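Recall from the previous lesson that a structure prediction takes nothing but the amino acid sequence as input. Here we apply that procedure to IclR family transcriptional regulator from Arthrobacter globiformis. The sequence below is the only information supplied.
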Amino acid sequence: MDEQPAYFVKSVEKAFDVLRAFTPNKPRLTVSQVAAAAYTTRASARRFLLTLADLGYLRADGAHFELTARSLEIGRSFLANLELPAIADRHLKSLAAELNETTSLCILDGADVVYVACVPSPRLLSVTITVGTRFPAWATSMGRVLLGALTEAELQTYFDTVRLQKLTEHSVGSPEQLRAEIDRARSRGWAMVSQELEEGLRGVAVPVCRGHDVVAAVNVSLQTHQSSAEDIEKSVVPRLQEVARQIGLDYGGDASGLRRA
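The prediction returns the following tokens.
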């Protein structure tokens, strides 16, 4: 592990590790579960949990802890000052209503994609998607589009640190295979990922550009039994590209960086 700079406060890092242990799939955790997720001792985890509870960011319920509404304060300022989701909102709603599918806007944050806007489909999916949800970039259509927009040096740095895992039997199995998929997304201007993140779920994404700069990716999530990959390419991708173009224009760019399928 790289040596941290002199100013680095390890306890701050650990406090955020504790908070990030709570996820949509694991909203209630015991001390032991938090200790395992945060790679710390049970005694240390207990002190962090009790301190965060005293500060109002966690709530104790018997042997379990859970986040409180106050934890939203951490990201509220960021979201309030993020102009792009507000601009994209009406376009996502229109597309979601037209397709009857979930539409989303994502940005790249380190090795993950983060949802900054989402309009859910009336259909129920086993993947819980809300604003702030994070997924490994390599496993999503949005991630492959956004990774394709990186410089070669930035992409190499990503590959130097990324760790692939088999989330499903369809997940990419090697860095070489992933790079080929990223190159494919870059060359055609959109990406489709089928059942690599979740069985039965297919995602398609295109970049949102401000001028020639890719600033985000817009995505549609579909159930695999609803439409074939061929039908999605013919009917969904063009609509998605048009929505991305409109978002880019509204965001202050000419959207000229978008490629057509």
